[in-house]
Every structure is written in C-alpha cells, then in structure tokens.
Amino acid sequence: MSIATPSVSFQPNGLLRSIPPYVFWELEARKHAHRAAGRTLLDLGIGSPDQPVPEVVVSHLQEAAGRRELSAYPPFRGHPELLAAASDYLFDRFGVATDPTRHFVSVAGSKEGLTELILALCEPGDVVLVPEIYYPVYVRASQLARAEPVLVPFTADGRLDLDAVDPALVARARVLIANYPCNPTTATVELADYARLVQFARAHGVLLVSDLAYAELGFDGYRPPSALQVPGAMDCTVELHTASKSFNMASFRVGFVVGNADVISALDTYRSNTGYGSASLPQIGAAAAFRNYRDIVPPIVAEYARRRDALVTAFTEAGWAPVTPKATMYLWQSIPAGFDDWGWVEHCMTTHGVVVTPGLAFGEAGRGRFRMSFVQPAEKLTDAARALARG
Ligand SMILES: Cc1ncc(COP(=O)(O)O)c(C=O)c1O
Fold this sequence. Notes:
- With 391 residues, this protein is α/β, with parallel strands linked by helices.
- It folds into two domains: 20-47 and 297-390, Aspartate Aminotransferase, domain 1; 55-291, 3-Layer(aba) Sandwich (Aspartate Aminotransferase, domain 2).
- The protein contains 14 helices and twelve strands.
- A seven-stranded mixed β-sheet has the order 2-8-7-6-5-3-4, sandwiched between helices. A three-stranded antiparallel β-sheet has the order 9-12-11, with helices on one face. Strands 1-10 form a two-stranded parallel ribbon.
- It is globular.
- The model has no long low-confidence stretch (mean pLDDT 96).
C-alpha cells in the first residue's frame, strides 16, 4: 500500500516574510562560502567576546550545578539571587536604589528582552523612536509588534536629535530607544544627555528604553552612566543590562530589565504567557558576576583597551584617521573610496582573510562605514589593520 505524500509547504507567516533578511545572516552565509572555499578567516565581524568566563562565575556554577532546587521551573521574574545581586550592583555602581521584587525581570539576554518589551507594550501603529544607526533588533521587534519604527537622526556628536522628528510622529510614539555607549558608532553620553531624554519621555508620555549593553566597557577612566541616575527617571524609563559583554558570558543568555514597575509588570505578563522565566543556572552565574564586577571588569577592559590601541595605532601609522573609541569593543570607520559596503566586506575576506561588518547592517545611515570588533588578541588585530590599510 502506498501512502500519498500530501503537497503541503510551510513558510514563515506574512509578517515574518515582510521583514527583510537579517544582514548578519548574509554575512554568515558569505563567511561559510569563503571557508568552504578553503580560506582561513580572522572573524572581527560579530561582537562575541573571546576572553574567558570569570573564574568566580565558573566556581559558583560548579557548586550550583548540584543544587537540587535549581532543577525546578524558575520563578517568573527571575531568581532572587540574581535580582538581589542586580539591585546591589545598580546601587554600588550608579547610586540607583531599586526594589528587587518590583523593578526587575531577568531575561535571556538583552536582545530577547528588548523584543519582549516592545511586544508587551506596543499596539499596531504605535511609533517606536529608534536611533538612525541602530542595533538591528530595535527595528525588527517594532515590525514584529506591527509598530512603526521611526529613525531619529544623530547630531554631529552622536546625540539623538529629537527636535528633528516630525511632531505628528512624536504624538504617536510609545517608546524611545537610546543606546549609549552606542553599537556600532561607539558614541557615549554624560548624565545631562540622559536627563534631556528623560525630560522628552515624560513630556510626551513615552517610555525611554536605555540599552546599556556596554555598561562596563569604558576606557581611559570613562564610566558609562545609567539613565536611571536621572532623578525621577523611574517614572518613564527602563534599562537593559546584560552579562554578555561585561563578563564574557554571551552564550549564557542572561541579563535583566530594570525600571518602571508598571512596565516591568507588563513585561512579566508577556513573559509568563509565553515562557517559564529564564534558565536558573545562567542567572546564578550572572549573580556571581554582578556581585564581583569590581574585580572582574578591570582586566577585561584593560585587554580591550590594548586591542583598541593596537588597531588605532596600526591604522594611524598607515595614514588613516580612526576615531579612538571611549567605550564599547568596536572600531567604526569609513570604507575606503572605490568600495561599496558588500564590496569592501568581500575584499577584506578575499584578499586579507578578515571579516568585518558592513555599516548597512545597522541601517541605511550606516552605509559607507564598517565595524571591527576587538575579539582577537592585539597582535592579530595589528596585522589585520595593516593588511586592510594596504588596500
Ligand atoms: C547594543 C546592543 N544591545 C543588545 C545586544 C544583545 O546583547 P545580549 O547578548 O544581551 O542579547 C547587543 C549585542 O551585540 C548590542 O550590541
């Protein structure tokens, strides 16, 4: 007896099909093609930390792995050890007082947290104000919520030029996203800049979402501030923190959202309908990291600073004019004349075996620039920069 094979085909739904392919996928595909052709690549494309997970995190995890209660479903809002550690961290690092039971939700990384936040808050047709050069999930999550991402131009010094946004769009805005230190531009702000954003959010009934993914990666004494340091910010602000960059824990997928209690409650409602909370073990690891950030962070930052200096020196010696970043783990500069974005990326891979990220991965306003991540030792970065600068 033969069984007829039904002719069914399955596709992503119309909403997903309407969203253009992710540029980082395209970059992945191109890397695979080069590797399949036998080329060895130095990958500076993705900002995935290569330094080790801190010892104190490893030892806490070894002990936690045997803890019987950690095999049960986790509490929805987060494990109390992480929430308490996060609250203490915010006070010690930024002087921000929070209530671990009301102001926090632990999330599986800030990328996931941002998406959930936007899905929890936005109605179709709402406007989400996004920096014009942006971490891609800001726009994609808005599209998934059927909200309208509206790009906010930067001023020459990398601040958000909110006066340039059409007031009719501001009137429909539900969320304003800020990302300082900025990936990919590396722009930084001072507290006064956050005060302006908080004031805008309050005046327009908008939620300020501060993505502080690079909270600890400041150089030469620069320490990124938190938007929650602005007096009264809790009225209209939430902030995302992550263990990925500060503590080399990108694969653990753990971070937290902190801020306005009503927004946290909305996020909790969304998450409790779709999941079971974040995995407990990564939260225990992150709790150890946030508790010990004063010891963990300096050597990690010192290594990134060495790498930054190696890249900047090599490009400068070759006659380029790189801007020395004050924060993040990236160098962001112009693509040499004669190349478009993908042309330059292909050239770097084919001729020099170096993977860089095209600026258009961060939106049209990023076109003509490229990003290099400090995720290899300084000597390799020097070689890569010298090779690229040769053309
Ligand atoms: C600005 C920014 N926000 C969020 C993320 C996501 O980090 P996580 O690993 O916490 O999801 C990244 C990762 O590169 C980022 O650059």
